[in-house]
């Protein structure tokens, strides 16, 4: 059975939308008819992805911007720009993130701050600034991207794991704060997906052995995240509030 969603007339912002899971989710939203803004820090990569996405649909449905999600002023200006251009923001997908491994005893404070800032603080800032306009307009959908690392302890993830746990916890808080304003906040908890974020570990003996512990026996493919994201962005999920939907090949079920 194939379930399709119609987001015609909806405006969606995808952070980290120039690559990886964000790019796949942006593609899914565009194919479902949404107007999509993708943002990232690498302006060249953002423009390449924007042009690629525009080639599969009406180019007027896609906008690409270079924005640092850890910069409060840049995020605020972005939301103002979206409101001025479209008059609304219906969907926010927070998929901007960074993954780096380091033994805790050798991790610098700078590395810690960078990982926490991009994965957690950036998510908070985008939620906060988007909510101001969503509340004015009667609501919206926010989908944050966490990880199985939020619920499991993996060596080398002394900063990444707490950052993603924070994203899942933040999702719960914002969900109960904003649901009566019409803003539905939920979260996706992916396992390892075959994206550039996995370049550091892909193909290593340790990672190949790790994948054997997954009931599904493999990494996820980027397009396999899209269904969960579109579901949580749609009215079909209206009664789901503050939930982290695991898209993990069964890893957290064993």
UniProtKB/TrEMBL annotation:
Residues 10-191 form the Ketoreductase domain. InterPro entries: KR_dom, NAD(P)-bd_dom_sf, SDR_fam. Keywords: Oxidoreductase. It comes from the Bacteria. Pfam families: adh_short_C2 (PF13561). GO terms for molecular function: oxidoreductase activity, acting on the CH-OH group of donors, NAD or NADP as acceptor. SUPFAM superfamilies: NAD(P)-binding Rossmann-fold domains. Belongs to the short-chain dehydrogenases/reductases (SDR) family. This is Short-chain dehydrogenase/reductase SDR. It comes from Acidithiobacillus ferrivorans SS3.
């Amino acid at each position: 059975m194939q379930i399709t969603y119609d987001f015609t007339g909806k405006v969606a912002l995808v952070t980290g939308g120039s690559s990886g899971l964000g790019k796949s989710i942006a593609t899914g939203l565009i194919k479902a008819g949404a107007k999509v803004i993708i943002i990232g820090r690498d302006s060249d990569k953002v423009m390449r992805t924007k042009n690629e996405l525009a080639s599969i649909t009406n180019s007027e449905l896609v906008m690409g911007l270079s924005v640092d999600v850890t910069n409060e002023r840049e995020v605020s200006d972005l939301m103002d720009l979206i409101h001025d251009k479209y008059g609304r923001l219906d969907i926010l997908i927070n998929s901007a993130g960074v993954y780096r491994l380091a033994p805790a005893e050798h991790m610098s404070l700078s590395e810690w701050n960078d990982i926490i800032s991009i994965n957690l603080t950036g998510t908070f800032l985008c939620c906060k600034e988007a909510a101001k306009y969503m509340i004015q307009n009667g609501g919206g959908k926010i989908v944050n991207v966490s990880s199985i690392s939020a619920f499991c302890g993996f060596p080398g993830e002394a900063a990444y794991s707490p950052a993603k746990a924070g994203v899942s916890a933040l999702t719960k808080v914002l969900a109960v704060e904003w649901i009566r304003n019409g803003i539905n906040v939920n979260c996706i908890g992916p396992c390892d997906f075959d994206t550039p974020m996995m370049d550091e570990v892909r193909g290593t003996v340790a990672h190949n052995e790790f994948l054997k512990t997954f009931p599904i026996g493999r990494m996820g493919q980027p397009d396999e995240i899209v269904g969960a994201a579109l579901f949580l962005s749609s009215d079909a999920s209206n009664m789901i509030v503050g939930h982290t939907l695991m898209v993990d090949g069964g890893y957290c079920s064993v």
